[in-house]
């Protein structure tokens, strides 16, 4: 495929971006069939000054029983201090009303600034944002906007269990790309792509969780990121960068740039569709995530939203917008620093117990982001043995002893056996961790004795 590039007209080095037409071959048949909602596509025009809108069937907000909404928020710098934030007047009216499909303008603006701050992506440079009901909502819509039933997709392996059923229900061939403690093994990815059978449709997407991966805890290194990005350009696929643990990085080295940031160094931008989530940093129940990427893909996601749930809850967007505007970017950064230290401490407590009870019984790498340990159970002393299966140990023995974790098989698209286990260290107290790992040790010892 020939790619023509467009300049963006901004100052500084010309940023080349892929033209909208590039994405035609990336859209699924379903996405191409979808038509814009006749009402929702006109809704932004309602803001035209002087215009009287008789357009949408919006209920009259004066009939709603809410007159104001107040909540107490902790200070990001002094969490013992609280301030009361109130949503009323026009803000409340917006929060109670139908709104634009892509999201509430004040929240979109704030997030736009956040993406510029953290990823160097400036406004109007060929990308935009859509807000979803959590990132899961947007990932689901992106997958359906891009992948036709039966098409092959590239997934890092092990992979977030929440995407396996999406690809499975589309009858996709999930091509597993090996990972290690440094992220996706780009050399394996290169081999897959270079040995791709002639005549077989090539994968359009690669799904990856580059920071504190769920389930493996790994954080992809800069070198690996660069190599994967180069392959995306060479072999024409879009990186679905699912990064809900980006803000839970507690490694000692400076943070690696995201794929979304790194592509600014590429000859052209447009190979990354990024998903962020506020679930791990503000609240999981509030259900706010956002997708950032090329207009053509965001448009396809929005058209799905316009025909499914119309939009993400205006009220939760108004609450999040109020909080974030009151904090500002410095406040948000202070909050992030505080919570990432919180998880670093949890990680240390967990690892201390692992060293105490599981030395010689399990192997692991230390995560530098996120909330997961991924460890291999050593179920036999025989180095020649195939490693075995963690299922019985975890689902039966450990559970009977009073500890619940996930056997690694659930993170493998083909459900094969694996001696790996995923344990989340986000909630348990120091005491609980000590007990849980002791119980796990007893379960492993029991399995080894059989
Ligand atoms: N991706 C990954 C890798 C996750 O771990 C999760 C949450 N478990 C999600 C997406 C979904 O997050 P959200 O709450 O934003 O929908």
UniProtKB/TrEMBL annotation:
GO terms for molecular function: pyridoxal phosphate binding; transaminase activity. InterPro entries: Aminotransferase_I/II_large (IPR004839), Class-I_PLP-dep_aminotransf (IPR050859), PyrdxlP-dep_Trfase (IPR015424), PyrdxlP-dep_Trfase_major (IPR015421). Coiled coil: none annotated. GO terms for biological process: alpha-amino acid metabolic process. Its cofactor is pyridoxal 5'-phosphate. Keywords: Aminotransferase, Pyridoxal phosphate, Transferase. It comes from the Eukaryota. The keyword Transcription does not apply. Residues 96-440 form the Aminotransferase class I/classII large domain. Pfam families: Aminotran_1_2. Belongs to the class-I pyridoxal-phosphate-dependent aminotransferase family. This is Aminotransferase class I/classII large domain-containing protein.
């Amino acid at each position: 495929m020939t790619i023509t590039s467009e300049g963006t007209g901004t100052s500084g080095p010309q940023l080349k971006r892929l033209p909208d037409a590039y994405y035609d071959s990336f859209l699924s048949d379903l996405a191409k069939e979808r038509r814009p909602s006749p009402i929702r596509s006109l809704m932004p025009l309602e803001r035209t000054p002087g215009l009287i809108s008789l357009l949408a069937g919006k209920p009259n907000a004066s009939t709603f029983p809410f007159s104001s909404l107040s909540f107490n928020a902790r200070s990001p710098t002094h969490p013992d201090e609280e301030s009361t934030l109130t949503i009323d007047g026009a803000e409340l009216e917006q929060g109670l009303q139908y709104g634009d499909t892509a999201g509430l303008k004040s929240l979109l603006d704030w997030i736009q600034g956040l993406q510029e701050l953290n990823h160097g992506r400036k406004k109007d440079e060929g990308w935009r944002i859509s807000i979803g009901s959590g990132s899961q909502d947007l990932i689901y819509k992106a997958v359906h906007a891009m992948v036709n039933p039966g098409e092959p997709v590239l997934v890092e392996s092990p992979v977030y269990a929440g995407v396996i059923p999406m690809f499975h229900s589309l009858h996709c061939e999930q091509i597993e790309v090996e990972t290690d403690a440094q992220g996706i093994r780009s050399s394996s990815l290169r081999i897959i792509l270079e040995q791709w059978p002639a005549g077989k449709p090539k994968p359009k997407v690669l799904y990856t969780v580059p920071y504190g991966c769920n389930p493996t805890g790994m954080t992809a290194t800069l070198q690996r990121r660069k190599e994967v990005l180069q392959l995306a350009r060479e072999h024409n696929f879009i990186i679905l960068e699912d990064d809900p643990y980006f803000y839970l990085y507690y490694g000692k080295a400076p943070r690696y740039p995201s794929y979304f940031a790194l592509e600014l160094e590429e000859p052209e931008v447009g190979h990354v569709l990024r998903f962020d989530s506020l679930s791990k940093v503000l609240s999981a129940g509030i259900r706010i995530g956002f997708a950032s990427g090329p207009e053509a893909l965001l448009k396809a996601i929005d058209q799905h939203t316009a025909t499914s749930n119309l939009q993400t809850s205006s009220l939760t967007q108004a609450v999040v917008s109020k909080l974030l505007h009151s904090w500002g970017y410095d406040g948000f950064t202070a909050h992030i620093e505080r919570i990432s230290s919180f998880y670093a401490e949890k990680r240390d407590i967990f690892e201390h117990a692992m060293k105490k009870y599981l030395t010689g019984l399990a192997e692991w790498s230390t995560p530098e982001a996120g909330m997961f340990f991924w460890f291999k159970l050593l179920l036999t002393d025989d180095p020649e043995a195939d490693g075995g299966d963690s299922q019985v140990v975890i689902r039966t023995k450990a559970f009977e002893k009073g500890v619940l974790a996930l056997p690694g098989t659930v993170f493998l698209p083909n459900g094969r056996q694996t001696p790996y286990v995923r344990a989340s260290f986000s909630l348990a107290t120091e005491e609980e961790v000590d007990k849980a790992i002791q119980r796990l040790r007893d379960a492993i010892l029991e399995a080894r004795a059989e």
